[in-house]
Every structure is written in structure tokens, then in C-alpha cells.
Specification:
The protein is of the alpha/beta class. It has 2 domains: 332 residues, SGNH hydrolase (Rossmann fold, 3-Layer(aba) Sandwich); 139 residues, no CATH class. It has 20 helices and 15 strands. A hairpin with an 8-residue loop joins strand 14 and strand 15. The longest helix has 28 residues. The radius of gyration is 26 Å and the shape is globular. The termini are far apart.
Length: 499
């Protein structure tokens, strides 16, 4: 008897250890999309589970049009309304429905804002109106529960190309990734914790010329309405029904997009009128002009706002939530604690559009950065006192004015000055980032003929522009990626800049 009990105990222990190891392996090979890429989908869903229970008053759902539009921190900063953006790329109504069901296990929102671009045909050859890879991105990091089991079963019934067991055992779906694992696969716990933007994905390009002729819609110009994709209409009904059951206000939207059209807007308005929900049409003349929106400047492309457009839309929807739906503001630690992270993201997005040295340097005063500065040749000829003052705001102290012919390097990381050297002799710095795993090297010197030598290496790559003046390399300590590499010709009066 004792022998049998011992065998059973060992078998149970073996199975438990195997289950833990197998689960870890499945998590390892499942693709991850964190804050070091444009669409941090994994961060969105993994981070949602870390929100305090019943702290979120508004949920945003929808496709990438919603991901890049609704900015929870801006809404909180302006109105004190707590929200979370559960949108993701190519999120059809089926996925939106199940993520709403899942969210209601943890939160009691007063309103759901649903972006409706994907109510209409998009991937016409796909049963779910979107590609399998995007459905997997949305569901792979949903926790297992009866909700996920139902979602997987439903999705695989609709799309026969998908296999239920591939969701339960993702190693079967992703086994070919084993040889292509990257840093994100091994740093899941750390990277998944960086959900400071609460589901929002910032874009910082300008649409430009392609949007200059866009005119918002005169909604009385035609009664024609587009046809919703039948499956999307079915699950829009389910979303509406679930919101009614839970006493949640449902607000439908179509965000600013050249790729939208008046017929789509008419169809959503008709649905809202028939089903007793609200519709905010950001493409209508009235709303568009109230926001002072300009698609050429406020969109990244024909369908997605950039971060400055998102600020305008978020302020508008915040006012709607506050005044029309009477959602009261409050003070919540998880939004208070991320104010500085939001400021950082705004500066980060602005950085790419700045062409003068002083505004540029002033945007680097964040603990998330490592900033390396190295001079080449003469760099003090047109260096202004105001530029030195900005450098001092970064923590640097060297008096660079009048130091013609000197060599200079400075390294700032996490708000701490690691090195600042100025000399007529060779100066260099050797160190490491990310707990010693990423080597860092900086050099400013002259060869025997007086020609400037400059180097900034982070990892194995040379990052310096190696131009006369001040070479600046900016590295993101959180994501482990180079943010920017620029140079300023501070030896000439115009202080030219190059990337």
C-alpha cells in the first residue's frame, strides 16, 4: 500500500512539473507584441488583468482605428474619467464581443465605446472579416475561463481553417518559432508590465498631402447606407444586447478616416437609431470642426489618427462621457501614477519632428533614456549660452563656451550622468546598459593629422552619425532600442541638424 502511495505521489509530482514546464514552453513560443513595437497588442491584454478590480468606468473596443484614437490618460487628465482601450488590429465584432464578456469578469464599466469600422466588409475572403494572425494576437493572452473556451469554440466553428486544439496547445501552432525567438520571448514578465498607456498605441507620422483635400461629411447630403457584413452585424447585436443586460451605455463611433465614407456613417447612425444606442461620428462636419481636426496633420495615414489627432478625439469623447453620460471624474492611483509616462510618450513622439538643437535636447530629460553625446572636430564655434543651459538641465556641467579644439563626450542614463569629459586629449567611455548585457562605448578624439574621430557604439553597432559638431544618440532603456541618432553642426551659426 505504501509503495503504491509513493508511486502515486511521484507520478503526481512528475505531472505537475511537466505541466509547469509545458505551460512555460507554450508561453515562450507564443508571439508577443510589447511596447517596443508600433502595435503593443500583448501589452494591452496582459496589462488589462493588472488593473484594479472595478476601477475602469469606460471600455474602448474595436479595430486599429480605435487603438490609435482613444487615449485613456488624456481622458483622465482632462476629465478624471478612468478608461481602458481593449481595441486591437483587425478586431472584428466577434473578438470585440468576447473581450467585452471577458472584461466584465473584472470591471463594471458605465459605458462602452465601440469603433465600428470593422462592421463593414474588410477581409472579404475571411469568415471572421480579419486574418487568423490578428485573431490569435487578440486571444492568445486572454486568460483561460469559460469565456475564452466559448470564444475559441465559436471562432473555430466560424472559420474552419482554425483548430481549437491550437488555442489550447499553442506550441502546435507556433512550433516553427523555436529557432527565431527574440528578447521579448524571454522578458515577458518585465515587458508585459509596461501597460502605462492602457491599450493606446501611439503613432507619430503625418498623413500630409494625401489628406489635404479631405472634407468632413455633410450628413444630409445622401441617405444611402452601406451594408454591414452579416456576421459583424450579428455580433454587434450581441454587444448591444450584453450592454443592455448589464446596464451599460453603448456608444458607437467611426473615427476620422479618409478610408471611411458617408454611407458607412449613415449605416451606423441608422443602427443606433433603431437600437437605442448613441453614435458619435467624428467624420461629420459638426464634430470634425468642433475638434478643430485636420486629417493632413492629425492622421498618420488614411485610417489612423496620430497621437496629436488622438488627443483631439479623446478630449471630445471625454466631454461626451462627462456631460451627456454624466460619468463622474475621480482620482485613481493607476492613472495618477502614469501621468509622467504619458508626458514621456508625447515628448518621444515629438522628437522625430524637431529640427533645432535646444528644443530637441529639452525633450530628452526623461529617466527612460540613455543619451550619449560625442563631439567631432570643432563644435564650439557657434555654441550658444542657451544651448549650454539646456545641457545643464540634463545634468551636465561642463562649460563648453570658448573651448575651441577640445574633445567632448557625455553619457546620461536613467537621469544620472555616468560620464562627462572635456579635454584637448582623447576622451572615451566604456560601460554597459541593461544590467551589463549591452556594451556602450563613446569616443571623441583627433588623429595625428588633427582630423576628428568620433564613435558611439551601443551593442555591436556603430550609431553615431560621425559628423562635425555634436553627435547625439538616444537609447530607450525600457525597450532596449535606439530611438534616434542625430548631429548638430554647432560650429556654424545656423546650427544645422541631420539624421
Amino acid at each position: 500500500m505504501k509503495k503504491n502511495l509513493g508511486f502515486a505521489a511521484r507520478a503526481v509530482c512528475f505531472l505537475l512539473i511537466f505541466a509547469v514546464c509545458f505551460s512555460g514552453y507554450c508561453r515562450l513560443v507564443t508571439p508577443k507584441f510589447f511596447t517596443d513595437i508600433a502595435w503593443p497588442t500583448t501589452t494591452t491584454f496582459a496589462g488589462f488583468y493588472d488593473m484594479e478590480k472595478d476601477s475602469v468606468d469606460v471600455l474602448f473596443l474595436g479595430s486599429s482605428h480605435g487603438v490609435t484614437t482613444f487615449l485613456p490618460q488624456e481622458i483622465y487628465n482632462q476629465y478624471g474619467i478612468t478608461s481602458y482601450n481593449l481595441s486591437c488590429e483587425q478586431q472584428g465584432m466577434v473578438t470585440s464581443y468576447y473581450w467585452l464578456k471577458e472584461a466584465l469578469r473584472y470591471q463594471k464599466p458605465k459605458a462602452v465605446v465601440l469603433e465600428c469600422y470593422f462592421c463593414f466588409p474588410y477581409m472579404v475572403d475571411e469568415p471572421l472579416n480579419s486574418e487568423e494572425s490578428y485573431t490569435r494576437k487578440a486571444l492568445d493572452f486572454m486568460k483561460w475561463s469559460p469565456v475564452k473556451a466559448e470564444a475559441v469554440r465559436t471562432i473555430c466553428e466560424i472559420d474552419e481553417k482554425q483548430d481549437v486544439w491550437n488555442y489550447y496547445f499553442p506550441n502546435d501552432r507556433y512550433h516553427t518559432r523555436w529557432e527565431n525567438l527574440d528578447r521579448n520571448d524571454y522578458t515577458y514578465r518585465d515587458m508585459a508590465s509596461h501597460f502605462e498607456l492602457k491599450g493606446f498605441a501611439p503613432l507619430y507620422f503625418y498623413l500630409g498631402e494625401a489628406g489635404e483635400n479631405f472634407e468632413p461629411y455633410d450628413m444630409g447630403a445622401t441617405d444611402d447606407a452601406a451594408q454591414m457584413q452579416p456576421l459583424m452585424r450579428e455580433y454587434l447585436d450581441k454587444i448591444n444586447g450584453l450592454c443592455r443586460e448589464e446596464g451599460i451605455s453603448l456608444i458607437l463611433t467611426i473615427t476620422p478616416a479618409v478610408s471611411a465614407n458617408i454611407e458607412m456613417c449613415n449605416a451606423v447612425q441608422a443602427y443606433a437609431d433603431e437600437n437605442g444606442c448613441s453614435f458619435v461620428n467624428f467624420n461629420s462636419q459638426e464634430v470634425y470642426r468642433q475638434m478643430d481636426y485636420e486629417i493632413a496633420k492629425d492622421n498618420c495615414d488614411d485610417g489612423h489618427p496620430n497621437i496629436w489627432g488622438a488627443v483631439k478625439v479623446s478630449r471630445y469623447i471625454g466631454e461626451v462621457l462627462s456631460e451627456q453620460f454624466e460619468i463622474a471624474g475621480k482620482t485613481e492611483p493607476q492613472w495618477e501614477e502614469t501621468r509622467e509616462d504619458y508626458d514621456f510618450i508625447m515628448d518621444y513622439c515629438t522628437l522625430d519632428h524637431v529640427g533645432e538643437i535646444e528644443p530637441y535636447l529639452s525633450l530628452l530629460n526623461h529617466d527612460q533614456y540613455t543619451v550619449v553625446i560625442a563631439s567631432k572636430d570643432e563644435f564650439t564655434g557657434a555654441l550658444r549660452e542657451s544651448t549650454v543651459a539646456v545641457l545643464k538641465e540634463l545634468g551636465l556641467s561642463a562649460d563648453l563656451i570658448g573651448q575651441e579644439g577640445c574633445n567632448y563626450i557625455a553619457v546620461i542614463s536613467g537621469g544620472e550622468v555616468l560620464s562627462e569629459q572635456i579635454s584637448f586629449d582623447r576622451v572615451e567611455y566604456r560601460g554597459a546598459l541593461r544590467n551589463g548585457y549591452v556594451p556602450l562605448y563613446a569616443l571623441s578624439a583627433k588623429d595625428e593629422w588633427g582630423n576628428g574621430l568620433t564613435s558611439i557604439r551601443i551593442g555591436e553597432e556603430e550609431e553615431s552619425k560621425n559628423q562635425s559638431g555634436l553627435n547625439v544618440v538616444v537609447y530607450n532603456n525600457q525597450t532596449g532600442k535606439i530611438v534616434d541618432s542625430v548631429w548638430f553642426s554647432t560650429y556654424e551659426p545656423e546650427n544645422a541638424m541631420g539624421r
